[in-house]
Sequence to fold (325 residues):
Amino acid sequence: MSSATACAQPNIALVKYWGKRDEGLILPATGSLSMTLDAFTTTTTVRLGVEADSFTLNGSPAAEAAMSRTTSFLDLVRELAADDGPAAVTSVNEAPTGAGLASSASGFAALALAASKAYGLDLDQSELSRLARRGSGSACRSIVPGFAVWHAGRDDASSYAEPIPAPDLRLVIVTIDSHEKAVSSREAMRLTRDTSPFYNAWISSTEAVLDEMVSACRTGDIARIGELTELHALRMHAVIASCRPPVRYLAPASVSVFDAAAALRASGVQAWATADAGPNVCLLTTPGEAGEVASAVSGLGRVRVVSPGPGARLVSPGLGARSVP
Ligand code: DP6
Fold:
């Protein structure tokens, strides 16, 4: 009776993924770049030798939509492993699910590793990243430690994330609301592609920002990394707001955090804001300034400073976590 347990953390994109070229394979319209966090761990166990598929999330049976996404994902693993046996999936998620802290990224990264091991597959980092991508696009970046570039690729084989050198940075996460969002990223991405008059400009400008961000990371140009991070987040929220019907993820309190970042910069502190598909905002800063940034925004939400974290890894009972080779 085979079983495997894996952990993974969410990632926050500095260059966002927003739009798919192929919905079935989850091929993105552009590449993206992120930092995997050292917080909000998802721990997932996949156990074979059971009667039927099941998915327990944070101690309760998962809702139907989450269950069917998990079963479809297990089907991909079963096809790769040529083993159609059912699996019991148990997952514990430290991040608030669905609130824009990318719990689907840590969730599918941990599931990809645990399920592939339980079904006897031995995938390398890029194969695992490709597999995680099929569950949720951004999950492919949570396989990778630290900073990751997800290459858009031409096809399934060429669309995966890999590590990129970058300076040591911190994210100050300001949690404003941890309720599930009204419109999922998946749905809003589709709506953006289908209804925004600015979609093509979003895609072509993202390619240019990604190229600039990759070179800023390589040269360690923190000011350029920060400026591009905030600019790209605001462009994503602008293209989302231009949908029909419009979607707005940022709350008034989120906008206050963007204002706080501008005020910090005006006083000589390095801080740049970004937000995924939800109201919570992250401030990118340096290790030396993270404490000051965190106290400046402590009145705006729950604040936590996070560092670049590890990629997805197996957890051997009694032995702790170990990295994927
Ligand atoms: C705003 O990866 O959740 O966080 O591929 O449809 O599952 P699906 O979408 P998902 O979208 C993440 C969108 C984002 C930006 C990012 O993480 O790059």
Observations:
- The chain has one domain: 3-314.
- The domain at 3-314 is CATH 3.30.230.10 (Ribosomal Protein S5; domain 2).
- DSSP finds nine helices and 17 strands in the chain.
- The CA atoms of residues 265 and 304 lie 20 Å apart.
